[in-house]
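Feature request, filed as a ticket because there's no other form

It would be nice if the structure record came with a short human-readable summary line next to the tokens. Right now we just get the raw output. Example of a typical job, pasted below so the devs can see what we mean:
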Amino acid sequence: MSIFTSNANRTVSSLTLSIFILIAAPILQGAAFAKKTKSRIPDITITRAVKGELASDQAVSAHLIDVRTNDGIVELSGSIDNLLARDRAVKLAQAIRGVRAVVNRIEVYPVVRADSDIRVDIVTALAEDPATDSYEIRVDVEDGKAVLSGNVESWAEKQLCASVTKGILGVNELKNNIKVSFTPNRKDHEIKAEIERRLELDPHVTEGLLEVAVKDG
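Raw output as currently delivered:
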């Protein structure tokens, strides 16, 4: 008789535990979801922040770009006239707190210009930029597609040459064939110019608040 009673008690205990788990699990899951949702920045707040950053950046035509946010994923759409502005818009959006990813649907419709005029502007821009003026970069342009070749001393300089080229009106595509040949003893003014240019292009940094000095590397 005691054996049957013991088995019955075990059955009741197991049933009680199962019922508790069935009731408690959704409650605990709901609490975790509520905490996660509460800590996440609202989409409307992210959208406003992205629009604000785009509007305050001189390199981006903010009025031509639409911003939408869904569950922390930002979608950029619209049309602009140069590659640099598109890249800049994406970097600015990625820098906003709460952004989980950026979907880039911005289309580039560059101004139609003669290849010879585009090439002259690229060569001039590279020569006038303090971070790229000391390098001999070959520039070729065909149907708005720019091709860069030559040698620089760091990966950052290669990217700077690309950024300068993307900002030229009429460039609809860029192929960067520049090779990196590291030189251990670089001049201080070259290092300084490169650092300042990189800070200027970085949306995470307010470069106007920083001063750069280089001595003996």
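Something like this underneath would help us a lot:
DSSP finds six helices and seven strands in the chain.
The first helix runs from residue 2 to 39.
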